[in-house]
Inverse folding.
């Protein structure tokens, strides 16, 4: 395990259906002459605690991405993995490619969160030393109401107990692989966030403070905000 302790899995297989930006997935949109994905790739590659990088990417974009991996000197790149039926199956495909190397930990990140910091990556990994799963979160700022059918309020939720999950999420590789393999096809298709698998399988997920700058580019407004930050 010595060589590959901490592997970053970068999810770039999505098609960005909410973006309405033509056919190009958002992670490959060019901002200031660089694709959005390049930002998080460089950060993970330059992080002293990351030993390797696996990218989930559909075959049609691999030549494009390989060119950029070369241009940006991403020397920790290990291999591509195929996108799956949903986000969680994409993660499983990436985990499967690592089985022979059997790393200690995996750090799972969305390529559409370009502004991830070294500080957040390092905090995930240091917290993982005493835990099997770690997720950065932000406190809920709005008031949330619970409604079973979306037609009337069924109950009130205490805002101080609600949090918004972010990526990267970090896991002990062996425990997380086992957890994913223990769920049924239907259960895996219902998963939205990486840590849901851990929670479902009884793995304690430690929470750390997230970072507001580490937002996910989902809409055209998010893209505009990112452009503005890049220009600054």
């Amino acid at each position: 395990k010595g060589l590959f302790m901490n592997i970053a899995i970068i999810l770039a297989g999505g098609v960005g259906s909410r973006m309405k930006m033509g056919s190009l997935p958002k992670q490959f949109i060019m901002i200031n002459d660089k694709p959005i994905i390049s930002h998080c790739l460089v950060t993970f590659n330059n992080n002293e605690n990351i030993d390797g990088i696996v990218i989930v990417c559909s075959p049609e974009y691999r030549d494009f991405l390989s060119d950029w991996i070369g241009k940006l000197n991403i020397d920790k790149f290990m291999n591509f993995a195929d996108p799956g039926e949903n986000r969680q199956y994409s993660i499983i495909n990436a985990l499967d490619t690592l089985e022979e190397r059997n790393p200690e930990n995996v750090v799972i990140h969305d390529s559409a969160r370009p502004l991830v910091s070294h500080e957040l990556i390092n905090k995930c990994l240091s917290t993982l030393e005493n835990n099997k799963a770690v997720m950065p979160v932000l406190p809920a700022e709005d008031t949330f109401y619970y409604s079973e059918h979306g037609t009337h309020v069924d109950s009130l939720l205490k805002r101080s107990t609600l949090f918004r999950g972010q990526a990267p999420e970090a896991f002990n590789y062996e425990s997380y692989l086992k957890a994913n393999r223990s769920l049924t096809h239907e259960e895996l298709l219902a998963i939205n966030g990486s840590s849901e698998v851990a929670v479902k399988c009884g793995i304690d997920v430690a929470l750390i403070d997230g970072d507001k700058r580490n937002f996910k580019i989902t809409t055209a407004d998010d893209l505009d905000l990112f452009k503005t930050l890049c220009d600054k």
Summary: The longest strand covers residues 133-139. The helical segments are 37-46, 62-71, 87-97, 118-128, 173-182, 185-189, 194-200, 220-231. The mean pLDDT is 90. The two ends are 41 Å apart (CA to CA).
